[in-house]
Amino acid sequence: MILYIYEHCPYCVKARMIFGLKKQKIKIKTLLNDDEKTPHSMIGAKMVPILEYESGQFMPESLDIINFIDKKYPPQQVQSTESSKLLNWINKNNLLCYSLAMPRWVQAPLEEFSTSSAKTYFENKKTAYIGSFKKRLDDSSLLIEQMEKELESLENVLKEESLFFEEKISLNDFHLFAFLRSLSIVKDLSFPEKTLSYMKNLSKVCQILFSHPNLLISYCIKSICLKKFILT
Ligand SMILES: N[C@@H](CCC(=O)N[C@@H](CS)C(=O)NCC(=O)O)C(=O)O
Q: From ligand 1's centre to the CA of 197, what distance in Å?
């Protein structure tokens, strides 16, 4: 099986988590961000993750991939619980998260951005969603302050909802971990205690690093950081 991804992509993180959880090796191929032809030839759309589960057989959609792999390698482990409180929190903060993460992702040495045309493609496309990348970077302090406030309110949600604990994992965890992993590229952002230990636990269980595999220790350029604490 081959999983086609972008390294930054939170939906790809969800798909990768299930392979880590099941301790199943998966061949990962990272597509260039401006490569429209390859995904179109597989699923008729420019979207990842895509799982090639048999030669020439392709499956899009992270949640379908999670379900497929969870069933393929019993026992089934992923509970289908989705907390509306948590989903509301994530939806409310998606734009803020992307406003911080997108301008940093494109500067990071991620494989999908290894050509200048891939970078330009991403910036042009995502500017329509978050506005000017430069402006968002200039606004960093304000955006970080807002995000940190929101993370404080997440601590209460973490207490109330049954999130990952003693090997029990649900769809909530896939959604939240992917979101938090996106934020982990923001150098000056601090995560509160419970959130941080949640991130560390799931990172271990699902074998997802908070950085590019070649950048295992710590990595800082300008405002980008892949945090050391997660990687040890
Ligand atoms: N519903 C899909 C959403 C996947 C998705 O939106 N992927 C983004 C990457 S994060 C994508 O491929 N977007 C096309 C693009 O960025 O050009 C899933 O859960 O897998």
A: 28
Tell me whether the omega of the peptide bond preceding residue 49 falls within 30 degrees of 0, making it cis. Answer: yes
Range of the domain at 37: 2-76
Asked if 184 and 105 sit in the same domain, the reply is yes
Please give the tally of structural domains in the chain: 2
CB atoms near residue 224 (< 10 Å): 19
Same domain, yes or no, for 197 and 145?
Answer: yes
Query: Which pairing describes strands 78-79 and 169-170: parallel, antiparallel, or unpaired?
Result: parallel
Residue with the smallest CA separation from ligand 1 atom 11 is: 47
pLDDT 10s digits, 158-213: 877 767 665 689 999 999 999 998 998 887 888 888 888 888 788 888 888 765 33
With a Cβ cut-off of 6 Å, ligand 1 is lined by 6, 9-11, 46-49, 61-63, 125
Question: pTM for the complete prediction?
Answer: 0.91
pLDDT digits (tens, 9 = 90+) for 93-107: 999 999 999 999 998
